[in-house]
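Continuing from yesterday's entry. The apo prediction looked reasonable, so today I'm repeating it with flavin mononucleotide included to see how the binding region is handled. Same sequence as before; SMILES copied from the compound registry.
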Amino acid sequence: MLKDKRILLIIGGGIAAYKSLELIRLLRKAEASVHAILTSAGQHFVTPLSVSALCEARVFTDLFDLTAEAEMGHIELSRAADLVVVAPATADLMAKLAGGLANDLASTTLLATDKAVLMAPAMNVRMWTHAATQRNLVQLIADGVLFVGPDEGPMACGEYGPGRMAEPADILQAITAALADEAVRPALVATSTTVPVPKPSPLRAESLPALTSDALQGVRVVITSGPTHEPIDPVRYIANRSSGKQGYAIARAAAAAGAEVTLISGPVQLAPPAGVEVVQVESARDMLNAVELALPAQVFIAAAAVADWRTAATAGQKIKKVPGARGPTLALVENPDILASIAKRRKDRPRLVIGFAAETEEVVTHAKTKRVRKGCDWIVANDVTPASGVMGGDLNTVHIIDNSGVESWPKLAKEEVARRLISRIGDYFAAH
Ligand SMILES: Cc1cc2nc3c(=O)[nH]c(=O)nc-3n(C[C@H](O)[C@H](O)[C@H](O)COP(=O)(O)O)c2cc1C
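Holo prediction written out below.
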């Protein structure tokens, strides 16, 4: 699979640089050729000599190196590869690429390349969860950069959390997948959708490997996501600003953790997540039907922004504008409460029912009340005032409320919120 593939490996300045030596060994064993760029910080952790000995090729370290430029200029170096891999990807390298900086050989090469870039981030948990790094992550995903890891666990600095570089074997697997990406994608997009599957955008955000583990192996998870559309007449509807990004990210993270996932989605502009069954619906009533059909499941996550009301009657024909006449009055009736009806089921109630509370004021207080009123186990509360940028944006600040209290998370990429939520669900199943 990797035979004769050309990998350009950029090694950044982090403790995990020692693992990149093992990655080179695995790549060479798979008969790939490896050229390496070692940043000046990277040279504090591994030596150019050991990297070049393992690559069986010279190592590039300086942008302004006459000999290297004469042998193979930095532009040629960036183009000669089939894939550029950054491992460890430091917070600094992520920031430079997200910001378009090119002030050393590694960052200049990353900007000059016309090939796919795969990053394996490695850093202290606080650095990883910092709003700046999360912003850069979102930007890089949007720019089409692929990611593997980071993993969660004890760190060299003594702290615990996400930020450990993925294991070399997992990076090798991600390299293989990235190189075979176009070939495998159709098989991975398993969907029962009845509308045309949007062509995966060049952003390739759907191939971001989330928490890859077996924490939810064999667990069936049903997730709702996106808005609902409540018809007024054949061409008009009532909707809301939900983008579906958070629910889709949760579906990706659950599938990556080994769960069997059904995602019931309102109308959104997102590619179906790989390895997830997607059921497309329009209205709240359709969504409830689809959820009931998807049960039994051990986990139900209601991330959709379901319309509270629908029109009392739907006009069979387009309502005509009559010049000079008063506009029509819309009579509204309440929609079914999907979260409460699943949480209060006697038969087939999922073991864990998780709701979302989108609030614009007193977020935690209202969400606490909602948890009790709906009868769900956890509520994920978020502030959706326009100033928060949550609706439609890529970041989210959430509070997880259960019967023992409130856990507030910092502002994170929605992908990271999803990974943490799935990790918390994995812990719950391990403990119960
Ligand atoms: C002992 C030590 C360990 C470090 N580990 C990391 C790390 O794991 N991840 C990271 O992003 N930065 C780490 N840093 C900070 C980077 O080395 C620093 O930001 C450097 O400028 C990165 O340069 P580069 O991105 O060009 O490799 C570490 C620094 C020291 C002194």
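Comparison notes:
- The longest helix spans residues 414-431.
- The mean pLDDT is 87.
Will overlay with the apo model tomorrow.
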